[in-house]
Amino acid sequence: MMSGPHRRGGRGQQGIALITILLLLVFMLAIIAGLFYRHQLHIQKVSRMLVGEQAMLLFLGAESWARRVLSEDGRQTRIDHLEEKWAYPLPPMPMEGGVLTGCLRDEQGLFSLNSLGWYTSKTWAEELAGDGQGRNVTSRRRILQNLMAQAGLEHSDALVASLVDWVDPDGWLVSPESAEDNEYLLMQPPYRAANFPLGDIDELTLVSGFSPAFVERLEPLVNTVPGDLPLNVNTASVPVLAAVSSLVSVEQARRLAGLRPFPSLDKFYEQMASVVSETHATLRTLVPPQFLTVSSDYFSVHARLVLAGSDFAYRSLIWRRGDTTRVLSRTLTPIPQVVNDPNRKLPPVIPCGNGNNQESL
What we know:
Elements: H1 4-76, E1 90-95, E2 98-106, E3 111-112, H2 121-132, H3 140-150, H4 157-167, H5 181-184, H6 212-218, E4 222-223, E5 231-232, H7 238-243, H8 250-257, H9 265-276, H10 280-286, E6 292-293, E7 298-307, E8 310-321, E9 324-335
Parallel strand pairs: 3-4, 5-6
Antiparallel strand pairs: 1-2, 2-7, 7-8, 8-9
Helix pairs in contact: 8-9
C-alpha cells in the first residue's frame, strides 16, 4: 500500500498532465481558428476577384454595344443630335445578383478644358487687347468664363490664365497673374506645373485657384478630352449653349435648344439670329464657326453595376470617324459601400442627359 506522499505526488503529476493537455487543446484551437479565418479571407478575396472580372466583362459588353450603335449612326449620317438612338440611356438590365445601367454621352456637348492649350502669351495679350477695344467675339477664354459665371464661380482672367499655363506645352507665363513652376514649387507640398493636357477632371484641383468645391460645380459643363474640339450645338446643354456668346441669355439658349436638331451650322445661325435679334452675318462674325459643329467625334460610355453586393462605375472614351471607332481609355472604379442599404436596387444616376430641354449634363 502506497504512503500518503506518494499518492499526493501522483495527483500532482496528473494535474500537470491535464493542464498540459488543455494548453495543447487551446493551442490547436487557436491554430485551427487562424486557418479558418485565413481560409474565409481567401474565399472572400477570390469571390471579389471573380465579381470584379465578371463586372469588367459586363462593362466591355456594354461598351461593345455602344461602339456598334455609334458605328451604325456614323454610316447613316454625319449629324449628331439628342434624338438619335445612341443618345438614349441603356434601360436597367437586371441580372442574377445585380443590375447594370448605362448611357453614351457626347463629349463635344461639353467645353474641352484642354483647348486652352492653344493660347500663347502673344495670342492671350492680343485677345485681352481686343476686349479693351470693345470687341465681343467668342473665344475659348470667353466660353469658359461664361460657364464659370453661370455656375456662380469666380471667372477672372487670372484664373483662366493659370489653367492655360497648366495645359500649354511651355514653362512661360501667358500673364503676370498666372502660375508656373516657380509658384507651384512654393506650395506645400511643392510640385510642378504639368505643361500637358489634363488627363482627368480631378487633376484640375492642382491648378492654382481651383479648389475641390470649385471643380465639383464646374465638372458637369466641361471635360478633359484631348485636343481643341468645337462644341456640338445639337447636344450641348442649355448652360453650354448660353456660354457660346454673351449675346445669348439662358432663357434664349433654352428657346434655341427647343429648335434642335440643326442639320447644319447655317441653320443654327439662322435660328440663333431669330432668337437674339441679330443678323446672320453679324453672328458669324461674333461667334466664329470654328468653335461650333453639328457632328461629333468623341463620346464616352458611362455605366454603373451593382453585382453580388459590390458597386462599380465604368467610363470609357471612344473616338469615332465615320463607322470606325476606337477606345482611347477605360476606367473601372469600385464604389465603397459606406452605408449598407439592403433596399437599394438601382445604381446612382449616371451623368448623361437626353432631350432638347436638358439644363445640365
